[in-house]
Amino acid sequence: MGRHNASLLALGLAVLAVAVGACRRASEETGAPAGRTRLVFKYQPLWGAPEPFRELLARFERENPGVELVTEALPNSSDLAHQFFLTSLEGGAEDFDVLVADVVWVPEFARAGWIADLSEYFPPERLREDFFPGPVEAVVVEGRTYAVPWYLDVGVLYYRKDLVPRAPRTYEELQRYAREAMAKAPGVQGYVWQGRQYEGLSCNVYEALWGHGGEALGEGGRVLLDSKPAREALEYLRGLVRSGVSPETVTGFSEEEARRVFQEGRAVFMRNWPYAWSEAQKPDSPIRGKVGIAPLPTVSGEPGWGTLGGWQLAVNAHVSPERRRLAAKLIAHLTSPEANLVLALNYARNPPRPSVYEDPRLRAADPFIANLKEMVERSRPRPVTPYYNLIADVLQSEFSAAVAGLRTPEEALKRAQKQVDHLTGVGE
Amino acid sequence: MSGGGSLERERRQAYLLVAPAVVVLAGVALYPILAAVWLSLHRFILVFGERRFTGLDNYAFLLSDARFWSALGNTAYFTLVAVTVELLLAVPLALLLNRAFPGRGLLRASVLVPWAIPTVVSARLWAWMFNPEYGLINRMLPGSDINWLGAPGYALHAAILVDVWKTTPFVALLVLAGLQGIGEDLYKAARVDGASNWRMFRSITLPLLKPALLLALLFRSLDAFRVFDAIYVLTEGGPANTTETLSIYAYKTLMRSGDFGYGSALSVATFLCVVVLAAVWLRLLGREEGAR
């Protein structure tokens, strides 16, 4: 018994000693040596081997000897990351310098005065020359630059090359092809997309709205919902479910549910983000080599507009001018064509600069991304308004009501318009 | 006279003794509630740095807010159905667990497993089982696939099922505790008088179980009225807000939209509903105690 206690005591002391040592080491590390500036970068994990990205960051440190770069991870869910910034930036947090922002956050954060005006480092005209128009529209607020596009995402149409003659260009064609293929191959569903009540549904609805010739914003920046193209868009989506081209279950689908059905070879068409491609091409995938990708269809037959997703880099407005200058420098480093290429080749993140798509290194190593240019070019942001996060909920629930057949599109849009006008203060 | 003085002293001492508890309660319960009430009288949107006093404007909007009424309806329906089903299942379960049989201790412990699993984990689990394409539930049921979480009408019931699965054991345990407080002699006497099992259940078990049942109802209905995690994981309030409860609406308004004024008004409304509910149960419970 006595010996037992003694050895326990020894073990306890050993643990304590290690812990104290670790603490001391940690405290030595956090205090940056005098004369060096500590720059904190908050971003979401990129998934994949960390080395290429670390090397990209290390290069910045080598080129700027006075700077110590620290990265801090954000929650992977966009909602949670937004919550984090909402509370910390409102509280005047100064403990991070550069942050990633979702496309729909930039106008909101800019209006709140939480992110710095970067126009002197990145004039809007230069952004317009160097980047695709969609992401530029999302980061330039009232003629000033508040963020720089980092990588982007766009809604695209996947189709089964073995079941349909070619990618459909119009909505009518999509439904016809789907029906023909379903008749030929029983057990296969027509068109899967994202119909669950969440942000993905809003992306799908906006794509249909643009495809019907609509605009997200009306006069004076009013979020326009009660319009003819919006009605037609919701009628089209509801019609897909009612006519059986899309399964009933699509009203509960987010990206992964749709991808699984498509991946198992049980759907002819799918609307999704480019990430689904690499899964479809895995060696054990039943649809490997049978999948094509194309712009979404439209009413008129011209290539459709996909919803713009993706992340931008911005600077915390609460930090000192000196750190702000360094932060802008870091952003320039991380959004350079070379950095775009690193992210594309190692993490499959789509570059926001048209020029990178022409780079022979990308064309050789990842022809899939290189071929996305046609679709990325036509990406469009959801309504660019500081109120977006305030109204997103209303959009989701009313769109969901229309798609699930609980309300007619007309009724749902009228209700949505009324609530959105109330929230954005139109007519008050 | 001197007796009155000592009573006075005793009373003062009693106040002193409860004072620390009152201070703590005021700090952690009363202050946040009052702060929420104060916030609810403002138009306060975080992002726009907009904060001005608007009096009862938020409450006026709340009364005409269709989404609020639908959330209240969903919450009330969820609470009513879930708690009723839980109680109906828990009583027979408790009677069973109260019997002496080999392995009873083990069974009692294992019954609690659903309740011990964190709700978010079990809700995720159920979300997979409800999946219309490859979920277990549709595989087991004959007939065409049901779109459990995507069809209005089904989704709220799916959430109720998860809640019943999770909390029936807890209710059963409360009822079991009540059962164990009933003396064996009463049953013996009844058996001597030739009472049937049903008669014993109705005339002895049920009346004596009433306080335990009321307590279970109190706990469960207050809990169910504030339901958030299970439904949030299953549907996030969809489709078309048909599963949106008051807590989810308040959370979305507060944390997603950053509309602290109206979000607080929603929280206060939820709080008031729960207070009324609690007052009713506590009154019934008090009457029960008084009757003894």
Structural notes for this entry:
The complex is a heterodimer of chains A (428) and B (292). By secondary structure, chain A is α/β, with parallel strands linked by helices. Chain A folds into 2 domains: 36-152 and 310-379, Periplasmic binding protein-like II (D-Maltodextrin-Binding Protein, domain 2, 3-Layer(aba) Sandwich); 154-307 and 382-424, D-Maltodextrin-Binding Protein, domain 2 (3-Layer(aba) Sandwich). Helices cover 49% and strands 14% of the residues of chain A. The longest helix of chain A has 29 residues, at 2-30. Chain A is globular, with a radius of gyration of 25 Å. Chain B is mostly helical. Chain B folds into 2 domains: 2-39, no CATH class; 57-291, Orthogonal Bundle (MetI-like fold), CATH 1.10.3720. Chain B is built from 13 helices and 2 strands. Chain B has a two-stranded antiparallel sheet with strand order 1-2. In chain B, helix 1 packs antiparallel against helix 13 (260-291) and helix 10 (197-225) packs antiparallel against helix 13. Chain B is flat. At the A-B interface, helix 3, helix 4, helix 10, helix 18 and helix 19 of A face helix 12 of B.
